[in-house]
Amino acid sequence: MVATRREVALAASVSLRTVSNVVNGFPGVAPETRERVLKIINDLDYRPSEIARMLKRGRSGLIALVLPELDTPYFAELTRAFVELGAARGFTVVIDQTDGDASRERELISQTDRGAFFDGLIVSPLGLQAEDLAGISPERPVVFLGEDRHARFDQVMIDNFSAARAAVDHLISLGRTRIGVIGAQNAHLASSSVRLAAYERSLLEAGLPVERSRIAYVDSFRRADGATAMAQLLETELLDGIFCFSDPLALGAIRILHERGIRIPDDIAVIGFDDIEDGRFSWPTLSSVSPDKRFIATRALDLLSARLDGAHVPPATYLAPWSIVTRESTAGSVAASAR
User: Fold this and answer.
1) What is the distance between the alpha carbons of residues 263 and 148, in angstroms, rounded to a whole number?
2) Using one digit for the tens of pLDDT, what is the confidence trace for 194-247?
3) Which is it for the CA torsion 216, 251, 209, 263, positive or negative?
4) Alpha-carbon separation of residue 188 from 38, 104, 112, 136, 155 (angstroms)
5) Are residues 136 and 227 in the same domain?
6) What is the pLDDT of residue 336?
7) What would the mean pLDDT of 258-269 be, rounded to a whole number?
8) Which of 20, 105, 217, 322 gets the most CB atoms within 10 Å of its CB?
9) Enclosing domain of residue 10
């Protein structure tokens, strides 16, 4: 059985407070007493509760990573980065799913304060609006991810407009002139709106028309939506390039193109967004916009740690780097050696 602090105190003939002071490294304990208590701790194999020690200091050691959905590859890979990098800092990362419900997102943020169950939150909001944060102090230990700008709070994001433009420009550089897009959404979602605007800007600056019939709307960024959208586009459009707002959308589109006997990239070049692992093993391998997920996790943890340590500084925004990863779906077999 695991020894208790009381047993250590009795064996060392000291008070419970003295044992706590030794365990926590506090001063004021005579050297011979400290040595005796440490020997008893070792002899009895006493292991102090890290959770209890943190709670006594007003910390739980737990931070929440709040995501709209957990079963999409991008968020799964991002979560892995947060768990690994958080553990290296002594945090236990607990995952919560909101399904984009604004009331749930607002509830979690409003509960985040000193003494709450979680020390802090890292939130990728989907339904949250600016007015939902009106009564929340900007010094709360909360960091936002994503494109919706919450200027009063710390945030980590990527430049979606530039990244999406680069994806479309990549297709244009290959000589593609009839470029469609999959991923527009009727609901106001920042990432979708920004990527659509970037698509249109790239076409216009290249002297190419923006055809509304080449813009496919979806309910979500999942494979099935990509497959449905691709099938609908093929009914009316003869495309030679397609930009998908997520890799799962692109993988769904590729499935339909294979079924129709349309060659990739000979007949149509396909590029996605997020650079998930599945894209490196699809057939053909998928070109994609690759955001630096570990940078996102590192900077978010930096910002949260600073708030937890009591930093009183203006809110900061970090832009995560990204790159275009060229693979077989746009460059053919010459991209086989790409990562």
Assistant:
1) 37
2) 999 999 999 999 999 999 999 999 999 999 999 999 999 999 999 999 999 999
3) negative
4) 60, 18, 26, 23, 20
5) no
6) 45
7) 97
8) 105
9) 1-42
Which residue's structure tokens are 């800092």?
89
Question: By mean pLDDT, which of 22-26, 303-307, 329-333 is the weakest?
Answer: 22-26
Q: What is the pLDDT of residue 48?
A: 66
Q: What is the domain-level CATH number for residue 218?
A: 3.40.50.2300
* pLDDT of the residue at 52: 55
If DSSP states are collapsed to H, E and C, what string results for the chain? CCCCHHHHHHHHCCCHHHHHHHHCCCCCCCHHHHHHHHHHHHHHCCCCCHHHHHHHCCCCCEEEEEECCCCCHHHHHHHHHHHHHHHHCCCEEEEEECCCCHHHHHHHHHCCCCCCCCCEEEECCCCCCHHHHCCCCCCCCEEEECCCCCCCCEEEEECHHHHHHHHHHHHHHCCCCCEEEEEECCCCCHHHHHHHHHHHHHHHHCCCCCCHHHEEECCCCCHHHHHHHHHHHHHHCCCCEEEECCHHHHHHHHHHHHHCCCCCCCCCEEEEECCCHHHHCCCCCCEEEEECHHHHHHHHHHHHHHHHCCCCCCCCEEEECEEEECCHHHHHHHHCCCC
Count how many domains the chain has. Answer: 3
For residue 31, the model assigns a pLDDT of 87
pLDDT digits (tens, 9 = 90+) for 1-50: 567 888 889 999 999 889 888 876 777 788 899 889 988 888 888 876 65
Is residue 114's pLDDT more than 50? no
Q: Please tell me the distance from the alpha carbon of residue 197 to that of residue 147, in angstroms, as a whole number.
A: 14
Whether residues 297 and 220 fall in one domain: no
